[in-house]
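User: Some background: our group keeps a shared notebook of sequences we're curious about, and every so often someone picks one and asks for a predicted structure to add to the entry. Today it's my turn. The entry only has the sequence so far, pasted here. Could you supply the structure so I can complete it?
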Amino acid sequence: MKSGELFTERINMFVSYIPTYFIESPVFDFKHMVDIDLSFDLMCIGKHSNNDQDGGNMQYSINGGSSWVILNTQGNSLNWYTHTSLNNLDNEPGWAKDPAGYAVLDSTYFDISFLSGDTNVLFRYKYRSAHAPYGGGTVAGIRIDNFKISGTQVTELSLVSICDGDSILIFGQLQSVQNSYYDTLISPSGADSILLQNLVVTLLDTSVSVSGITLSSHQNTGTYQWVDCDLAYDTIIGAVIQNYESLSNGNYAVIISSNGCSDTSSCHQISGVGIDDIVKQSILSIYPNPNEGEFVIERKNGFEGELLLRIFDTRGRVVVNTILAKEQRYVEIDLTRFEAGLYYVVGNSDDELFSRKLLKLK
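Assistant: Of course. Here's the predicted structure to add to the notebook entry:
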């Protein structure tokens, strides 16, 4: 095809089959472009009468050509389509001009800024004609020159994040709302350059639900530390999962941390710890206690599930991390290399927490 010229093959005008011709563009990536324009010079030659209407239109695809949409009313345009419906073009809108006295290239323009952000965009020109090529008595064909995509390139800066309630300076203004922010720079030559800064705000859900003696944080991601509000928000050793089953009546809250942010829930009262819950604490038996560093942790009272056993010192550090398997009745522990003092033995099943104190004498 020379200089964008395409003429249809000779068609027997008494044959009802009308072939369809396409000129398709390469793929365009508009992820980092705004203010995008499509322009080209077009000579669309097609017979147009009351019952016989040839012509073509421009279409686009945002999924690599799996489906196509007529480029028609999505944006502002210039010299776009001469007819709203052409019967030989499947009754679609398009260009059609009889060649008699008309053989010039029209400059067309369409604002395709609505495609900004799409990464797999194709364009194609669709053309149908029931008539013969030049030299056969009727001219039927198209010519497209100077097909051009223009727009402003966007430079995306590194993502920044803040905690809810904080603010950050973006392009000279304090911002606290999660959004995409833009700034336009103009070079000495007059060319625009747009900067994009995406801001993420980390929101923590500090709501807590209470069911019986169990507190549950509604925040589904991050880390957890349950605290005792009645003891000046003292941390509860081993209470570091989303749910906390209280071992005694009182008021409790949870400190949630995620993505560098931290927040504390309000305090929630537990007043239903009874004798059955106290018995549950005795599922773990430790002997001897006090001891000099060597002792046994044994399961009691018929609890047969697997237990994750951790031993914490008073600073909250884990000094032992082991598993008491279903088939095990006990496990032997050696803390002789650790300093004397108070320790906490914490057992976690799937959804329950058991805790006992341990005193190492020397």
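Suggested note for the entry: The first strand starts at residue 5 and ends at 7. Residues 248 and 274 are 8 Å apart (CA to CA).
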